[in-house]
Amino acid sequence: MSSKDLINAYREALNEMLKRYKDVLAEWRSEFDKWKNRAKEEIRRGSIPPLPPIPKVPPISQLSGVRSNVVASRIRDEDLKVIDMLVEAGVFKTRSEAIAYLVSEGIKACRDIIDEVSSTLEEIRRIRRQAEEQIERLREKIRLPEVKAEAGGRICPSCNRDLSNLPEDIRVCPYCGARLSVD
C-alpha cells in the first residue's frame, strides 16, 4: 500500500468514524429532546422520568486490517451456508468480513506449503533468467538481432520478453515475475 493510499485509507476511516459518532449523537439528542418533553409533563405531576440511556460508543475503525483488494470467487453452497451462519450469529458483520478472515486463517494454516511454493517459484525464475541469458549470449554470438516488440507493444523491462500478446492490465510478467507498470 503506497503512502498516498494509506493516507486516503486513514482519511476515509476517520471520516467514517466521525460520521458514526455524529449519527449516534444525533440519535441521542433526539431521544433527549423527547425525554425533555416527557419530563415537563411528569414534573407537573410530581415525578421525574429516568434519563435516556447514554449511547454506546461506536467501535474505532481498525486501519491496520484495511482490505484493498476485491476478489470474486465461486464457492460451494455448503461453504456459503457456514459463512451465512457466522454472519447471522454475529461473529462477523458481513460475508466479506467472514471470507476475508477465513482466507487469512487458511493462508496462515498453510504457511509451510506457501513457503515451499515460493522458494520453488524463485528457483524457477532463477533458472528462467539463466536460460534467457544463455539464449541472449547465443544470439549475440551468431549475431541475431534483438527481439523488439511491435509498435504499440510492450516489453518486460526486466527480461525483455514481448508482452504485446498479453492483456494490457497485467501487472506481473508471466516469464520472470517482475512487476510491470500499467500505463
List keywords for this structure.
183 residues, mainly alpha, 4 helices, 55% helix, elongated
Please tell me about this protein's structure.
There is one protein chain. With 183 residues, the chain is mainly α. The chain has a domain at 1-67. Helices cover 55% and strands 0% of the residues. It has 4 helices and no strands. It has helices at residues 3-45, 77-88, 95-109, 111-141. It is elongated. It starts with a helix and ends in a 42-residue tail after the last helix. The model has no long low-confidence stretch (mean pLDDT 82).
In short:
The chain is mainly α and 183 residues long.
List the helices and strands and how they pair.
Layout: H1 3-45, H2 77-88, H3 95-109, H4 111-141
Structural class, judged by helices and strands? Answer: mainly alpha
SSE order, as H and E? HHHH
Q: What's the total count of β strands?
A: 0
| Major beta-sheet overview | none
